[in-house]
Design goal:
CATH topology of one domain: Rossmann fold
Keywords: Hydrolase
Radius of gyration: 18 Å
Shape: globular
Number of helices: 12
Strand content: 15-25%
Protein name: Alpha/beta fold hydrolase
GO molecular function: hydrolase activity
Strand order of the largest sheet: 1-2-4-3-5-6-7-8
CATH class of one domain: Alpha Beta
Number of strands: 8
Helix content: 25-40%
Largest sheet: 8 strands, mixed
């Protein structure tokens, strides 16, 4: 979807307004991004899925065009409650869902702890199994005061360097700016550090203990060259979820949809396809 996604709708949640868009018609699919990205990461996938589905895409609270403010609870636990509330607010009955990075943990919290039913679940380079914090994240959390007082231009260079490690090929400047722009200036710096401070492994550890209770069909998709979450985590995750399947995307990094949008769109379209009654699966 050239030029990115236009999130023209807003809905209020317990932690602030959420910007979202709906694309296409058909059985519903909800796409949940991770960090430090935004809904923009799904743009190369949405057009394919929208051929047969009503695709719901939103910016997590604290990210992109959604509301962000001091004191906002944007933990994975809070985001799981937000997702559960959005599915109810949108009137969706057992939508299919895909979660990338912390979006995977958010999806599983909504399903296992908030009671949201999903028809199918795809987890892409997902933050689920502990430990998952990168050395950079741990350093930020241990030295928040220093990062808060860091000159904005230095902080922006740090975030830009982090983004460079998310793909196996160099991002175009326009694409990189789409992610970096939300973290620019004093407000963006504060928002970035708020979300890093909120990322705690306890929120996914609570889910990890319940993975055997997942009953929806699950497909795990992973970049074969993920430098943030080693591909061995994908194999371990599949072993913990009954009946889960695994697809590696060769040559792709952590932002698997950036490196291989067409391949990811093809995989998800096949997985989410409805099988007509009486048809051979």
């Amino acid at each position: 979807m050239e030029g990115g996604l236009r999130l023209e709708n807003r809905v209020r949640t317990d932690v602030g307004e959420v910007a979202y868009g709906v694309f296409g018609e058909g059985s519903p699919v909800v796409l949940v991004h991770g960090t430090p990205s935004r809904s923009h990461i799904w743009r190369g996938v949405v057009s394919r899925l929208a051929e047969r589905h009503a695709v719901y895409v939103y910016d997590l609270p604290g990210f992109g065009k959604s509301e962000r403010h001091e004191g906002q609870d944007i933990s994975i636990a809070a985001q799981g409650r937000v997702l559960a509330g959005l599915v109810e607010r949108w009137g969706l009955k057992e939508p299919a869902v895909a979660g990338h990075d912390i979006g995977g943990g958010i999806v599983l919290r909504a399903h296992l702890l908030e009671g949201t039913s999903f028809r199918k679940i795809s987890l892409l380079d997902a933050v689920v199994l502990t430990p998952w914090g990168t050395p950079a994240l741990r350093h930020v959390r241990e030295h928040l005061g220093a990062y808060r007082t860091m000159p904005t231009e230095v902080f922006e260079a740090y975030v830009a360097a982090r983004l460079e490690g998310t793909t196996s090929r160099k991002m175009d400047r326009e694409v990189s700016e789409a992610y970096l722009s939300q973290w620019r200036g004093p407000e963006g710096q504060a928002a970035y550090l708020r979300k890093d401070e909120a990322l705690i492994e306890r929120d996914t550890a609570e889910v990890e203990r319940l993975l055997g209770d997942v009953r929806a069909p699950v497909l795990v998709v992973w970049g074969g060259e993920d430098a943030w979450l080693h591909p061995s985590q994908a194999e371990a995750l599949v072993r913990k979820i009954p009946g889960a399947e695994l697809r590696f995307v060769a040559g792709a990094g952590h932002f698997v949809m950036e490196d291989a949008p067409g391949r990811v769109a093809e995989i998800l379209a096949g997985f989410f396809a409805e099988i007509p009654p009486g048809a051979n699966p």
